[in-house]
Design goal:
The protein is an alpha/beta fold. 20% of the residues lie in helices and 24% in strands.
């Protein structure tokens, strides 16, 4: 998915609707982020980490793609970039206060519980993890921005991954579908407590249309699901 022009290099935007962390405060008030250790997984070009660093936080941007991290390096930033698998995090237990992921990592792994369990391990007790993904209901609709994208064309319950292959038949892009219920169960199974589920509405100011995203679709069906989780240390 290509990003809208509103994203920039140093804004923390949760999804194509344009919900900004400045306003959402899903990780907490910006003034309380100072000196917080924050892990961003599936960081891509590390826009979110760049914004976090500007608030005085101490982010670490992690991605499995060396190419993405090279792009992040070219843009710049005074925080570590780590090339690693989100399912095998190279950090000690309780290393971070917060973790986040905006459309990164989780849609692209076959075993999300493994990733979530690792994130719980590296978060301090009570630590918060917030992640956004394409809203699961979108799986049932064609990825088209116009009216043709408003008619159900597939089963919401079909969990067959979407795969793109090169000329040699090798998978070059894989995205996994999880229903809302799957996500909630994955979160609970990993030792997290779901605090909130945010479904951003499409704002009037956002007139962008790219890929399957558009005001037409955004005003009728949700496009993004944001899961706000906290490490559950009860009992």
């Amino acid at each position: 998915m290509e990003h809208g022009t509103f994203l920039g290099d140093d804004r923390f935007v949760w999804g194509p609707e344009g919900l900004d962390e400045v306003e959402a405060e899903l990780l907490g008030p910006p003034e309380e982020l100072k000196d917080r250790r924050v892990l961003e997984i599936g960081a891509g070009a590390a826009q979110c980490s760049r914004w976090l660093a500007a608030q005085g936080a101490r982010p670490v941007a992690l991605d499995i793609s060396h190419r993405q991290l090279q792009h992040a390096l070219r843009i710049g930033g005074s925080f570590p970039l780590v090339c690693a698998d989100a399912g095998a995090l190279p950090f000690a237990d309780a290393s971070f206060d917060l973790a986040c992921s905006a459309y990164g990592a989780l849609p692209f792994v076959a075993d999300p519980v493994r990733v979530l369990t690792e994130l719980r391990r590296v978060l301090r007790p009570g630590g918060r993890f917030v992640f956004s993904v394409t809203h699961p209901i979108r799986w049932a609709f064609p990825d088209e921005p116009g009216p043709e994208g408003l008619t159900v064309a597939a089963s919401y319950f079909d969990r067959t991954p979407y795969v793109e292959q090169d000329e040699q038949g090798r998978a070059v892009y894989v995205e996994h579908h999880r229903t809302i219920g799957d996500r909630v169960r994955d979160i609970a199974a990993s030792g997290f407590r779901l605090v909130d589920l945010v479904e951003p509405e499409w704002p009037a100011w956002n007139t962008a249309e790219w890929g399957g995203w558009s005001p037409l679709r955004g005003n009728l069906i949700p496009g993004t699901a944001i899961f706000v989780c906290e490490r559950d240390d009860r009992g």
